[in-house]
């Protein structure tokens, strides 16, 4: 891979752990530890993204080279690089969890290409000092889910880490999927992901918890210098601007999640990127029937902390933890509190604009908040598929009656026989007002429909679609991974050849493990 331009800013400039073994331990006075990936027994490439390869400086031919296979499975370390695991802490499900760190992620190197910088990171390449009691490995099931979803999100326009490659390790990994005492062997896999960096809120929390304020200052300044170079001014002013940037990008990311119906599932502070990109695809899921209370994560089924409708509040809570972490550099609560408070007001305003755009409304009137709230409530009266509803809504015309509009979106109902009586009345009332509202906008049906189709995807990675791809991949057939990869590269296009994926969740998937229920076991 002759064009890979290695430029390790992170390990060159930040304090390293002096212990270089893989022994599990509490680390101090360092933001990372040097580690070596575990050698996989017989790696095999399942899929690689040509686009991501190109982004980092790898050619199409090189993807099929032995060197690519070896480097991105962890078998070989690139010359002039030293892989490392980052030390971070975190709040998990609202509780302080202390040191966590890259337990099964290993950063290979940073590269520079076309004036952009990327970190290449393996997930599932073996133990690190942060593996705690686990094995540092990942199974095929969760790797397929991460690989496909990150790319699907990118093409949907949602800020995210990218996926470069998906490989089998050739080794078996023991997992108890449902944590019910039934462990079984599964195929091991390794994903190489790509991002500007994999720095999480938890890194800042770690330094503050250990009271390493000099390291904290150096780390914040490192982040500003490389990731927010536009920030200028007095040190304190810079730290506040840095916080404001993270708040802004995080807010933008959450608005996108709510737009496409993505539920992260594990919004712990160690899974929050400093770049406001979606990171760590674990037990995530996609809303099928619109339900703000839904969470795919069985580990969280009691409290539903990370349910769809709670994601903005949790993002703010996580940002509050980041504010606490950098507070010792600022020593003034008020400016941080002000930025935190603005998160929800700014979010509400962005959410409203986003939702109106989904409805094909590009101006805003006073009654629009009610129009949105009424729709959110009506969508929940009887199971209604979010993706089908919004995509088909673009076919409603100004001259249509409420009845006609209902006919247009009827495919979105999981139980059409329920759309009678009061429920039908609610729908008729909502559509009557909606159509009036369309008529007040100065936009032709055709232009509106085109604009709506740019924000309402036709294809998302429904939970059952990943599961089908996993089941076939487990049999050694990767055609479905290839098909979904192609499909999801153009989520807003009609793609009639893929029409079968523009459909409600099939009945068999309603409560199947992997489709609507996922645990953290991966
Ligand atoms: P997650 O919930 O996947 O974000 O992981 C939380 C923490 O557990 C992180 O520090 C991970 O690195 C670690 N972890 C998760 N799975 C494993 C594993 N199989 N081996 C080692 N560490 C893991
Ligand atoms: Mg994580």
Automatic annotation (TrEMBL):
GO MF, one example: ATP binding
Annotated binding of Mg(2+), by residue: 271, 280
Alphabetized UniProt keyword annotations: ATP-binding, Magnesium, Manganese, Metal-binding, Nucleotide-binding, Nucleotidyltransferase, Transferase
Cofactor(s) for this UniProt protein: Mg(2+); Mn(2+)
Active-site residues annotated for this sequence: 270
Catalysed reactions listed for this entry: L-tyrosyl-[protein] + ATP = O-(5'-adenylyl)-L-tyrosyl-[protein] + diphosphate; L-seryl-[protein] + UTP = O-(5'-uridylyl)-L-seryl-[protein] + diphosphate; L-tyrosyl-[protein] + UTP = O-(5'-uridylyl)-L-tyrosyl-[protein] + diphosphate; L-seryl-[protein] + ATP = 3-O-(5'-adenylyl)-L-seryl-[protein] + diphosphate
Residues that, per the record, bind ATP: 101, 103-104, 123, 135-136, 193, 200, 280
Top-tier EC class: transferase
InterPro entries in the cross-refs: SelO
EC annotation from Swiss-Prot or TrEMBL: 2.7.7.-, 2.7.7.108
HAMAP family the record matches: SelO
UniProt function note: Nucleotidyltransferase involved in the post-translational modification of proteins. It can catalyze the addition of adenosine monophosphate (AMP) or uridine monophosphate (UMP) to a protein, resulting in modifications known as AMPylation and UMPylation.
Sequence similarity: Belongs to the SELO family.
NCBIfam families recorded: PRK00029.1 (NF000658)
Protein name (database record): Protein nucleotidyltransferase YdiU
Organism for this UniProt entry: Flavobacterium geliluteum
Taxonomic classification: Bacteria, Pseudomonadati, Bacteroidota, Flavobacteriia, Flavobacteriales
């Amino acid at each position: 891979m002759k064009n890979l331009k290695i430029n390790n800013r992170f390990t060159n400039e930040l304090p390293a752990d002096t212990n270089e073994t893989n022994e599990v331990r509490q680390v101090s006075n360092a933001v990372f530890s040097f580690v070596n990936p575990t050698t996989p027994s017989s790696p095999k490439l399942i899929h690689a993204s040509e686009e991501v390869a190109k982004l980092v400086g790898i050619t199409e031919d090189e993807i099929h080279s032995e060197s690519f296979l070896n480097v991105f499975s962890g078998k070989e370390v690139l010359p002039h690089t030293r892989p490392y695991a980052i030390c971070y802490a975190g709040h998990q499900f609202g509780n302080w969890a202390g040191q966590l760190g890259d337990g099964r992620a290993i950063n290979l190197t940073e590269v520079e290409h076309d004036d952009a910088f990327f970190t290449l990171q393996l997930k599932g390449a073996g133990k690190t000092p942060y593996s705690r009691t686990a094995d540092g490995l990942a199974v095929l099931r969760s790797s397929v889910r991460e690989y496909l979803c990150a790319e699907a999100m990118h093409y949907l326009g949602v800020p995210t880490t990218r996926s470069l490659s998906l490989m089998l390790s050739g080794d078996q990994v023991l997992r108890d999927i449902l944590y019910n005492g039934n462990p079984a062997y599964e195929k091991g896999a390794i994903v190489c992901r790509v991002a500007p960096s994999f720095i999480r809120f938890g890194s800042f929390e770690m330094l503050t918890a250990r009271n390493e304020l000099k390291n904290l200052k150096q780390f914040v300044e490192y982040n500003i210098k490389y990731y927010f170079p536009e920030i200028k001014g007095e040190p304190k002013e810079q730290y506040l601007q840095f916080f404001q940037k993270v708040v802004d990008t995080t807010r933008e990311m959450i608005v996108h999640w709510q737009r496409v119906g993505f539920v992260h599932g594990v919004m712990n502070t160690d899974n929050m990127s400093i770049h406001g990109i979606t990171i760590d695809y674990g037990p995530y899921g996609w809303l099928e029937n619109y339900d703000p209370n839904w969470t795919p994560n069985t580990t969280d089924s009691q409290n539903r902390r990370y349910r769809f409708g709670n994601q903005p509040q949790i993002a703010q809570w996580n940002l509050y933890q980041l504010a606490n972490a950098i507070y010792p550099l600022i020593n003034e609560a008020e400016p941080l509190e002000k930025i935190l408070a603005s998160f929800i007001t700014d979010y509400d305003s962005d959410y409203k604009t986003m939702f109106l755009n989904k409805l094909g409304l590009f101006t805003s009137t006073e009654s629009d908040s009610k129009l949105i709230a009424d729709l959110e409530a009506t969508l929940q009266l009887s199971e209604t598929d979010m993706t089908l509803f919004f995509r088909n809504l673009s076919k409603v015309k100004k001259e249509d009656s409420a009845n006609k509009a209902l006919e247009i979106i009827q495919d979105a109902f999981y139980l059409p026989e329920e759309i009678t009586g009061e429920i039908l009345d609610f729908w008729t009332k909502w559509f009557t007002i909606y159509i009036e509202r369309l008529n007040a906008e100065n936009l032709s049906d055709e232009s509106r429909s085109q604009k709506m189709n740019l924000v309402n995807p036709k294809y998302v990675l429904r939970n059952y679609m990943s599961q089908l791809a996993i089941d076939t991949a487990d049999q050694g057939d990767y055609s479905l991974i290839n098909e979904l990869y192609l499909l999801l590269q153009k989520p807003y296009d009609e793609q009639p050849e893929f029409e079968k994926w523009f459909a409600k969740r099939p009945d068999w998937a309603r409560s199947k493990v992997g489709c609507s229920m996922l645990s953290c076991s991966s």
